[in-house]
Amino acid sequence: MSTPTATDGARPSWTAAQWEAISSAHRLQLLQFIEGAGRATIKDLSGWTGRTGTSLYPHLEILEAVHLVAVEIEVGKGRPRRVYMPGPAVAWERQASETASEGHSSISLGVQLLSDLGLRLRRWGKARVKKAVEARDLHNAALVSETTWLDDQQLQEVNAKVNELMSFVREARAQRRGKRHNVAVYHFPDVTLREARDGVPE
Fold first, then answer.
1. Domain ranges of the chain
2. Could you report the per-residue pLDDT of 131-187, keeping only the tens digit for each?
3. C-alpha to C-alpha distances, 20 to 3, 25, 65, 131, nearest whole angstrom
4. DSSP character for 52?
5. Quick count: other Cβ atoms within 10 Å of Cβ 180?
6. The listed CATH number (1.10.10.10, 2.40.10.340, 3.40.50.11810, 1.10.340.30) that belongs to domain 1-138
7. In Å, how far are 12, 69, 108 from 98, measured between CA atoms?
8. Residue 96 exposure: Cα atoms within 13 Å on the Cβ side
9. How many CB atoms are closer than 10 A to CB 13?
10. What is the DSSP-derived secondary structure letter of residue 200?
11. How far from the centroid of its chain's Cα atoms is residue 113's Cα?
12. What global pTM score does this model have?
């Protein structure tokens, strides 16, 4: 596919093909790992996901085709190996840019992320039942969910705290010490069923 270029200096927006590429939880997880690591081999990705390298190649090819992943061939003493890195589209605006991509936006990405987190949470629960995790790991989880009222200034403060937390998380991810852990932070406007049906006034 072609790589769109914004004429006004703004970042391009994701295309329908890119949204389609991350509609798979497997590919979304791969993209997250590659974004976090900066560079990853198929051996790295296989170890982090618990999947075979053979099963990952088709997903990586799809991500590469839509510029979400870039590949570099690394030549060393042994056989050349493919090193995966974030592609140029990772830096684009994660909003729809085409009529064909209507319905694809940061909202649909959020839904996909939460769905994927649900799968990971169930896996953790299954591991607990089978006692496949250490006793101390049973307490290494926290869930907080609140519905509140926030004005513009309070929203700015929330976003600043979220950015601070995620900067810490990304630094820890780069160091890769300890065990893998999922950290998710998502806030969004609350909408009632009636408001969703009638449309929320501006």
1. 1-138, 142-202
2. 656 655 667 788 888 999 999 999 999 999 999 998 998 888 878 888 888 888 889
3. 16, 11, 12, 37
4. -
5. 9
6. 1.10.10.10
7. 11, 21, 15
8. 13
9. 19
10. -
11. 6
12. 0.66
